[in-house]
Amino acid sequence: MTRTQSRQVAVQILYQVEVGHASPEQACADYWVSLAEKDHDVFADALVHGVLASAAEIDARIVALSANWRLERLFKINLVILRLGLYELLFTSTDKAVVIDEAVELAKYYGADSGFINGILDKVLTGKEKT
Question: Which fold has domain 3-125?
């Protein structure tokens, strides 16, 4: 599985956790069983668990960076993709330009607001956030 595909999987699992209120373990297990995959993707699982472990800090950044938007008002798919992108920007060594490009592509793929996501992630990348 490519890293792009792993990110798509992570978005799907994180969305299930957010919307379906499933536990991360159950959402991961359900996803892999539904595909009849014997070995789950380690990178996708690491992303899911990393995002969830860092959720409080990530959400605080999203609130600070998205003027006039409370988390509850964001479309859930935008929120999930933002969380994933911010996790990779802040807590991994993945090339920052790749992170933003991948997040924008995920947004386009899932019909999310790619401009909004790009703007928030770019503020973090360029250090223009007010934390």
Answer: N-utilizing Substance Protein B Homolog; Chain A (1.10.940)
